[in-house]
Amino acid sequence: MKITRILALGLMLSGAMVASGAALAQVVPATPPAPAEDGGLEVTVSDESEWQDLGIAITSFATDADVPTRTNAGTTGALGRALSQVVAGDLKNNGLFKPSGPDGLPQPAYAQVQAPDYGTWASRSADMLVQGYVRAGADGNLTVGCYLYDVALKQQLVKGGWQVPASDWRRAAHKCADMVYSRLSGESPFFDSKIAYIAETGPKDHRMKRLAIMDSDGANHRYLTSGQAMALTPRYSPDYSKILYLSYLNGQPSIYSYDLATDRQTLVARTGAPTLAPRWSPDGKWVLYSMAKSGTTDIYRISSAGGGTPQKLTNGPGINIGGSYSPDGSQIVFESDRSGSQQIYVMGADGSNQRRISFFGGRAATPEWSPRGDQIAFTHIAGNLRVAVMSPSGGGMRHLTDNWQDEAPTWSPNGRIVQFFRTAKTSGTASIWQVDLTGRNERKLPTPVGASDPAWGPVRP
Question: What residue ranges define each of the domains in the chain, with the CATH number in brackets?
């Protein structure tokens, strides 16, 4: 669902003008003033302590009238509280900030949303203040406003507003959190995004594996396939419209593209041989995959529209698997055992200049290029399986996790968080976890059943 962006001088609390005709419409205020040099916020990505020391108070979103809504949260009053809880959860769970509220904080009146009592918040040692409102329209749609204030400077830093169907109220909260996160950190947002993964049920030796999706915080969970055919290794398309995945229907490996708007899938390739790890190119025109044939496994690419003759990019020996494009589409990182053990290699998008980049001991597998282009995440196998990162040249390797079996990393849209799945040693149950680039902030994502092969999609349009 696309957001319609409209430049405006401001989002007025009464009589806000919000674009219509889109499922999620946004009013974007003019560029906010920068903090003053003598008292403004100054933080850097490398110094996390300043971020966590920042006192961010998040209050319940106010409403002009406590009326019923078509949401699962209840009236606009209850919904205002739920919105602020989602915002607080987003900012807390990313590992950078330690916000307070909405529990235990004063709840502003509707008229105070744009006129905060700075003295109250200064006495509570709040550096930043997030306030907002929610209004219900006669058509059932909701209007949600969000404001970020600098308490010391007594000024508004940024504001935004969204009109949403009742079913999409959580998106408005995620957009608010994205706005606050981006303004304070200077980084790209990622909360309004979705995660595809493989839902696992059944005994260890006979698992049912279904394709499923959910919001970045685990909410709005939905199964996309029935489980009659095993699903594996999903990946979102660059434009967010489709999910690429591998299916074993009647034992035949097939690559499908699942259209999220129509809930229909299109066959991209049926290889007739063991197939692994289909992946999109950054422009969405190509699909990489690995196929075993005549004792070797090589990487191929084919048009994402299906049909045509696959182009072979590697030529043995041994096993060549995976393939993750660099953000500019010029290079591909992959794994190969041509040196005698699993290691990470890089090649041109046409298969040229294949070279090994992992020389740090142990084995290395499942590489994925960061959307920033500056790092590659992978599974390091040296005793345990651990998630690690390194530069595209192979330098600066460091572990982000230290557990028995962590594997298959995938990046957040802004390249700051790595998601992966962890397998329990005794039960074999898999679950999705994420960790930030410091390696100090781990979090397990809630899923209704066992979960593996996560794939984090881009920020939703």
Answer: 2-185 (3.40.50.10070), 194-456 (2.120.10.30)
